[in-house]
Amino acid sequence: MKEITISPVTRIEGHAGVKIYVNDAGEVDSAHFQVVELRGFEKFLIGAAVEEAPRITPRICGICPSAHHLAAAKATDQIFGVEPPETGRKLRELLNVGQFVHSHALHFFMLAAPDFLIGHEAPPEERNVIGLAKKSPEIAKKAIAVRKFGQRLTEAVGGKPIHPGNALPGGMSAPLSESRRADLLSMAKESLAIAEEGWEIARTLLDDVDQSFGAVETAFVGLSDNGTFTTYDGTAEVLGAGGERIGSFSGEDYTKYIDEYSEPWSYLKFARLKSGGYYRVGPLARLNIVREMGTERADEALTEYRRKFGMQSQTTLAYNIARYIEFIASCEKAVAYLSDTGITGQDIRTPAKEVASRRGVGIIEAPRGTLIHDYSVSEDGLIERCNLIVATCQNNYAMDRGVEDMARRVVQNGTLTESAANRIEMVIRAYDPCISCATHAIGEMPIRIEVENVNERR
What we know:
The protein is of the alpha+beta class. The chain has 15 helices and 14 strands. It has one domain: Cytochrome-c3 Hydrogenase, chain B.
């Protein structure tokens, strides 16, 4: 048995690898997506005051901190029995929109685009963001401008550009000033113009997508606001692989649908449906579930998308195009929120006084998919149990099976070329996994110690 390793997988957030096992005939016996990082937030949150969770959990990740911040805040709303006032809720929604703008722009233009605009067969020294900047400097500049807007929006609403801290039980701790609203609105309009211009590039991918690339068939989970795309509020819908509705959940009843488990080759948790079968989350899932995006330009793009893929799709590479449609919608929503002068109102928080419930579950959509924060607390509000289910864990099965599917196609006579390895990476990259968010493991976690003879290394 021969082992082929791809490590690290490039152009993703965090560190992961792929192990491919080839038999004596040169054929792939098995292959796995492997993560060996561990971040123990579910454990060291125990004993903390639950109101600290919205300030601690953003440190899980520097790419999607707002999602953890807001999911934790929604959970603490339930524990203290408080609902944010309208302005406070709108500020939270705007904060999440800013993260979608920032994260989706980062992935599409800087992580995925080199494969499509430069070519997945190009040499690796060219197939990266530097190569993209050389080939299409205007695209790179505009992508940076949009990301800057996302960061500025996070800073203005959340208090910090990286790890926001303004959301707390019952709402927000600081209002948005009129001067910042006006400045951000100008940036939002510029970002929307860039998103519209970029669609002329993104839409060209519609005709080039290999629908069998990284093939896997699953059910889907994602939030919906009565059929309209949403990232903050709504009900999590469960859609079967054939498009049939299986059910929905909105709080702790998620445990009726989702089962978490572990596999020996990875520290990354897996998730599946308790009714049987596996599911995916994220842009593809959300577009499969909703009827409309709820904004003009994104709905126009969605119509084009559905001409190619239908109302529901299993196509892995369609994640990239679905993500861009969400990017357009997020820019449109940012303009809408910031055009409303009422968002600078001062009524932003309902004071939280005492524990009203011993358990709180916050569910939102992070850029990569449905995010669940589940806290159980003592009478004094100290965390006794914490469970975090992030999108990358829920997509873990699909990435793992997609990796093996592609490996069987591209490994020839026991050999893996660099361009073939990149095709395997493209399967993983389509999901935009965030490894830092996802490595909260269950099951056995053996420590491996490697001993080397220094004399043999010389």
